[in-house]
């Protein structure tokens, strides 16, 4: 039996333990003080001779308190003997499996190997301030070193289970439960049906129900959780006496509010219940850890079991049966082992201060929590923080003055699990304080919020107001709509933007800024990225030899923005993967036996340079950037970034740049603030605001669309397609989000229309006619150019018809003839196109340089 | 009050004495110079548990560790309990009472520090000379060393009698120290020698684990600083030493066997190789130029400000000679050397000035670019020449990468201290194919040049670290990397023997002259700068006028670079405000420069 002296000094020996009321006034914990008082024997007669009325009821003997409780007579009590303490122990053997309907208890290595906590009779404690939380009279037993009374704690917890109703249940895991019934009773029912004997308890619920119980849970998890286990099992088998479980129910608390960040862990947290978030970087192999050693005497075959105490086995030196010394041998395959796994977690990049490297923490997972997480998973861990002294050399007595720390995990919760189910999880990651929400709402209520935000975006880049507004709307995005029931699948909510223009018009800077602003952004350059780099590739994991899917930039920026610089320099095969992403928002992969579809709900912000390095105003957008029109039509907004060349503009630009180079510290400070506000504003709006179209707005959109169609129809051209209508809707929704409005109203539609028109004016103007012509973007050719092509084809056909006598002609000769006939210049390309059109009509065939008329 | 001597020789005693009293451990100010430095003195000559200093860069940050801040020791014979202070110690005294109520657990942070990467030889030389060797206690070990060193060191001896051994040491110790420090690891044939993780290949010197006791959040990765701390070299700290003889017991301990052997090796390297330093005082270094000590900054500034113009002229003449008589290129080189990222506006770093010096004579082979680098290395406090051969680009690790097996940040050549000169020699580039690693390296270089940031590879994600590296690209044609400013070299002289020509130019400079240049370059960089209202107006007018004449002639980007050049020009003249003169001069040299590079610029479609 280990003496109380050997309890690790980490917690109990700490002189200041702010959460323990007992130690607030005293310099050492109660138990310690008590040991040092030989006169306390005199207090003992106060103890009643009969077992205390509020002693744990017999059921606990069957579960965790394995050793039968003796009613201790005061005369037998020796102060130095541990016998005077009740011993809750989770030892399995030695107890007939009675009571809890034959369900075996299961060891909880997650609560540590020191399971022999003792109860202390508080009545004999001379210090009265401990009693503040206790009932005024009666015998009180608390677990040694804590202020936890098993019976009260159990009672409180049972009351919590029976009465707690979650007032604001939003979590999807509770979705099938009745919100007006006690939450955890329903969960117990679930356990009885499903048979998975684990009860997850949200600490937030406990704290809202009983703050005192929560405090005890956080401060003394090692003692309180077994008590909870007891309470739950009692309650459960009372209710569902017939249910059969693999082992007794284990309580797994999660979401302890005490600590959220790995960086804020400090010595105060040792042996307490904590919750931290992080990313798994490494998992070890499964380690069998001995829980109980089995010894057998070589002489008489007498067997003995010894529990492992803090990693050490006390080998019995003498056989109790035959009294032979050193005859006991360890029998490995009859010893008890439990599974253990080391998991290394690293701080999530969001939690880190700039300029520092992430911290890592070692976590031990036990039993069924082994292999629950994989490297790369983002998880929240609830567990008990431990520190053990490191020995320089087991044989030396001086120890390194350093502790090894780790967390014994009690509960894993993957934070990115829900992403797979297609829901936004950003609201889980970002918690906004009341005050923050208030400031954001105030800002959103301002009439000029839209202008304010757009000017706060990349302030170092001058002007380009409309482009910034476009990007701002892209950052907010539209509302996600699901039409999968009607067979159309998801509608894209993300806005895609293409910037094209002269080199050196700070396109790259704008991209960099956006990339730095959004939490899940990716930045790639068209020059340096391949198709697999953008999508996903399969590789062999060097450790496990399994093929694993490595995701590329587009998948990584799911729910974020993928910035692609030098879009025009991308190879065609790379660009082709974008088609699916930009409309369907998924990526289909069929490689190395892995066929799957990944979500890639990413907005794309691309920048392209004109082919001739300088923008040629005489050419259309398509001709200038040489991108396939199929891709171009998938961009909601295409902006040109050109030098305006105007004096007032130049002056302002110069002023802007000069002040950029010389600005006081405070101004810089102010700006940083703006960026933080902007970040929060966007994150808040994205996760909480889901605007819907109002009646008027819908009407306005219809009108706008009809108008756009009309513009072109006057000249025999189509100037709008349904895709443009969808763009308009998305932009209007994004604008409503900027206003924190749940409804899309006419002003939103107005702005969407204006912005769309501006972008069109820039990108879809036919340089030959000066009209806006959407067909440049949708078919890659302006209507005038198409008309011209038809004319040439007709002329060529006519010419060929006139000379049917010679069915075979030379290419060059025909070209020259046609040029001679025509009054306008015909380029070779145009001629070839015309030939091809006729070829398609089966009017002629082309073979090499000869043209043969079809007969 | 403890004396300086006490602090140096028995710091733990001083701390122990102070422990319990309400007193902050402060170092007497006069002791800064007398503390022996780990940079100069080899480890085995330093007394364990004495106070030493170390000029270093934070290469990696380990996890915080909990230690016994205070504990009771029990004397086995008398059973008397003594309360001890656990601060600044790695190993406790015998007989710790683990269950004592007085035990206090405290937290400290460990940083892995390496000597400043690429530190120029002259910096090491001067800083070791400046040191005044402390008296008494240091003598025994010093004499012992003198015997063995005097016959192998035939370096020039300094007039200072006291400083001699240390100074000679600093120059000659490179090899001898290396042998000494590597000896312990060499003996263990079973394990490969420990990689000390220096950012640059071929670096020497001790690495150090610095334990920080307070305010560790204010330290950032890649900070340069001078730390004063208590040296701890207890052999018990080494993970390797006890692994061999107690391996069986190690496995039994569940807490210990979880860590991989690799991680143990890295986090507890032999103390003889990587000593521990318990930090008492830090001095952040804005620069590592020993000629300009931080304390004397104000005085030196005031006294030398007047001389700056003349020194500038001399330096310009020197550069002109180096650059084969090209005055314009020399001027740009000077501006480049004093550039410094002084602010960041959202994503744009301000003040960077990457220079691409094209037209380096290739006929002379690598000699010219190499010699040029040598000349620059003599002037700047830290520099590194990256020869951009295909092999280097494909194989070198430029970007630091997190090694999760050993749980450390594997350093890369781009993990450099602020204001390090990175000299990219593109003349070495030959035809061939870049593999994916090579492409990543080129991208990383491009990121440093354009955004002054390095994206460290954390396997599951990347993390951006701001950098402040002066990049100079020497190439034949225009570089394939972006640059802020491209100057095509126009040699005025063609010396028949390039090597001899440059060699004579190099040796012609006296050391006092070089010191003047060194001081000048560091000073110009630290000056403040502002633009007055009137000048702002004038610049605006000028810009509008230029645009009016020919909109194509000047773009917003051109104005950016023009403002940058004007700023550097002012600083180089020791002026702290932009004058119209400097503005027109900047315009002038920019026009000259552009007229040179124009015919070339159009050929290559790269964005500037």
From TrEMBL, chain A:
It is found in: Nucleus. GO terms for molecular function: ATP binding; hydrolase activity; single-stranded DNA binding; single-stranded DNA helicase activity. Its EC number is 3.6.4.12. Residues 1-122 are annotated as: Disordered. Gene3D superfamilies: 2.20.28.10, mini-chromosome maintenance (MCM) complex, chain A, domain 1 (3.30.1640.10), Nucleic acid-binding proteins (2.40.50.140), P-loop containing nucleotide triphosphate hydrolases (3.40.50.300). It catalyses: ATP + H2O = ADP + phosphate + H(+). Residues 449-657 form the MCM C-terminal AAA(+) ATPase domain. Keywords: ATP-binding, Cell cycle, DNA replication, DNA-binding, Helicase, Hydrolase, Nucleotide-binding, Nucleus. The keyword ATP-binding applies. One of its GO terms (cellular component) is nucleus. The keyword Plastid does not apply. CDD domains: MCM4. Residues 60-69 have a biased composition (Polar residues). Residues 15-31 have a biased composition (Low complexity). Pfam families: MCM (PF00493), MCM_lid (PF17855), MCM_N (PF14551), MCM_OB (PF17207), WHD_MCM4 (PF21128). Acts as a component of the MCM2-7 complex (MCM complex) which is the replicative helicase essential for 'once per cell cycle' DNA replication initiation and elongation in eukaryotic cells. Core component of CDC45-MCM-GINS (CMG) helicase, the molecular machine that unwinds template DNA during replication, and around which the replisome is built. Component of the MCM2-7 complex. Belongs to the MCM family. This is DNA replication licensing factor MCM4. The gene is MCM4.
UniProtKB/TrEMBL annotation, chain B:
Residues 157-172 have a biased composition (Low complexity). One of its GO terms (cellular component) is nucleus. Residues 140-200 are annotated as: Disordered. Keywords: Nucleus. One of its GO terms (biological process) is DNA-templated DNA replication. Its main location: nucleus. It comes from the Eukaryota. It is found in: Nucleus. One of its GO terms (molecular function) is chromatin binding. Belongs to the MCMBP family. This is Mini-chromosome maintenance complex-binding protein. It comes from Gadus morhua. The lineage of its organism: Eukaryota, Metazoa, Chordata, Craniata, Vertebrata.
